[in-house]
Amino acid sequence: MSLLLTALIFNCLFIACFTAPQEHVWTEEVVSYSGFQLWSITPHNKEARDWLWKIRCDYELDVWKESRSGNSTMDLLIPPDFQTELKLRLTDAKIPYVVTISDVQTVINNANSNVTISDKISKAQGHKMDWSSFHRLIDIYDYLTYLENTYPQIVKLIKIGWSYEGRPLYVVRISSASSPDTNPAIWIDGEIHAREWISSALATYIIHQLVEVDGNAGLWSNVDWYIMPMMNPDGYQFTHTKNRLWRKSRSISGKFCRGVDLNRNFGYKWGGLGAGRIPCSETFRGPAAFSEPETAAVSEFIQSKSTKIKVFLTLHSYGQLILLPWGYSYPAVYPPDYDELLALAKNAASKFVRFKYSVGNTVELLYTASGNSADWAKSIGIKYTYCVELGNIGTYGFVLPPSLILPICEDFFPALKVFADKAATTTN
């Protein structure tokens, strides 16, 4: 089979699947995942992968991780009603699978525990933040305000806009410069996908380390940091109150559906492969590029700093991957300076000890994703742009236990020095 024909078949499967509805009812009720299971399925060849994609489309299953090549696994969320039938079909097809989570709601209940920090400790330190729990939005925003008030010489909290539901969108600037926009800069964002709680936890941990740990002052002595821990506050709030696995924003996107995938709404190659056309799709691209107040505010702010921002990191989960542009085309295409981006990413990845990260092109390691933020950042001239998929590799999927927050954050932080050094020495 020719490469062109293979690509056409894959694209047809991908477009058909990712433009199909996956949320059938617009509901504000609390969603339970009792009885739902996470299956890790290993198709050993292309025919098995294509067959599995058809199964995923026919049953409209939620893909937590794709299988791209070789013996890589696909993680699928399986509702109780389909489990018996799918076990038989996978057995008949001789495709092995493992049930990695036997009851998703049980894991959610254990992971979504209330913050237990005492009022006494909270009053003593001036905030409720720690990194042994996943915190609610108010705790995160209160912590950012606390930092600005406590360290005004280096911290500025910048409100860049409002979410669809009227929540403020904040960027934290950490800088030793007496005048803004004089140093080279690094951008970091988290929580563009609401269910990926570890991304905002890491972003706030990075802020904490830069601001409150004296030994890290050298990281901002000649580099400015722009960090946005919460790009999707509406979706994040919804994951805590109604649906832990909600992914998108909360704008009205159809008669029966809500939300836009903010990481398909950026204005470079918007609307292509891997971006849903139907509002109910989990990857719905939105009615137009930058149609959402969240992406519009972020893009406007970044463009105002684009000549200074040298490194762009957008934090996601899961999979332990550092992904490079471009993400819009299958087969994969690469920017002219791909080798330079790859070398920096491999250097950063070499600093991880506990969690090993793979490095490579977005399409080759993950999937096509037109209109994603890292591609857009690269397209406007930011040289080193990466999407980072944080730990784990599938044991917990999106419902990471709080006990892994600190290990993931502590393991990641040393890699930041690699990016900071590169930002400080990049002139173009």
From TrEMBL:
The keyword Transcription does not apply. The keyword Nucleus does not apply. Keywords: Carboxypeptidase, Disulfide bond, Hydrolase, Metal-binding, Metalloprotease, Protease, Signal, Zinc. Residues 1-19 form the signal peptide. PROSITE patterns: PEPTIDASE_M14. Its cofactor is Zn(2+). It comes from the Eukaryota. Belongs to the peptidase M14 family. This is Peptidase M14 domain-containing protein. It comes from Daphnia magna.
